[in-house]
Design brief:
With about 70 residues, this protein is an all-alpha fold. It has a domain of about 45 residues. Helix content is about 80%, strand content about 0%. The protein has 3 helices and no strands. The longest helix has about 35 residues. The protein is elongated and about 50 Å long.
């Protein structure tokens, strides 16, 4: 059993309202993670294509967009 499976099993014992809050937070985290991964993949593709960008502006943009 994975840690996620254990966490979901234990979450079933929580009150409905708390489960909804946890679900919202988990979905938010997952969506942010996937968006960040996509942005990083796009940035790596740009680098592979020889498109250079200023690192400071790239990281500032990622921080602003993803709240890092």
């Amino acid at each position: 059993m994975t840690k996620l499976e254990r966490a979901l099993k234990e979450a079933e014992q929580l009150p409905d309202e708390l489960r909804e809050q946890l679900g919202d937070q988990l979905l938010h985290y997952i969506h942010n993670y996937l968006a960040l991964r996509d942005d990083l993949d796009a940035g790596l593709a740009e680098l592979d294509a020889g498109q250079m960008r200023d690192g400071k502006s790239v990281f500032a943009s990622l921080k602003a967009k993803h709240g890092l």
